[in-house]
Amino acid sequence: MPEVIFTGPAGRLEGRYQPSSEKNAPIAIVLHPHPQFGGTMNNKIVYDLFYMFQKRDFTTLRFNFRGIGRSQGAFDHGTGELSDAAAALDWVQSLHPDSKTCWVAGYSFGSWIGMQLLMRRPEIEGFISIAPQPNIYDFSFLAPCPSSGLIIHGDADKVAPPKDVQGLVDKLHTQKGITITQKTLPGANHFFANDSALLLEECADYLDRRLAGELADPRPKRLR
């Protein structure tokens, strides 16, 4: 897969990019965990999600947030990282102007950034949010959440306690016009240490069902 360098708001950003064989294929952006706690685009879960989308012929990108690897800049507590994600989507869209839809997948810190990107970009029609941390990050911006998606986490997660994730899911379930699918993996911790294969299996099953037209209410497209 090609290594790429593209321009972000704080300088160059380093990524891995795989275009689809179809001109109008959907785009998938995969966002990594917290940069100050070892998160990079080469995290195994991020890597596996990248290939999950690629196998389904999405145009797929994962990249390092500012200050990680060869990406320039410094950690910006989420604000700059959201701008990085928006710049990454802009970059892919500039290469694939015929792509009309997009998915975003994020793990931990990356899920918080991904959900914020979802609010900004009407072309994002689906999301996968792995081990979000509503106990640490404010998710109140999801008012309303504009797209259907999967929230998946472990019931032994001490970093993002299940009761906090459940509170987020319950709040989203009250919203009309979207379908939030929740999966709780028994015995899994925040790092899915012995459960990464099951995690990927659940994510792939969800994506396949969405691509088959399930698990989402038909909704009018938002205007860009």
UniProtKB/TrEMBL annotation:
Q: Which InterPro entries match?
A: AB_hydrolase_1, AB_hydrolase_fold
Source taxonomy lineage? Bacteria, Pseudomonadati, Pseudomonadota, Alphaproteobacteria, Hyphomicrobiales
A Pfam family found in this protein is Abhydrolase_1
| The keyword Hydrolase appears for this protein | yes
Molecular function terms, GO-annotated: hydrolase activity
Q: Which residues form the AB hydrolase-1 domain?
A: 35-132
* Annotated protein name in UniProt: Alpha/beta hydrolase
Report keywords, A-Z.
Hydrolase
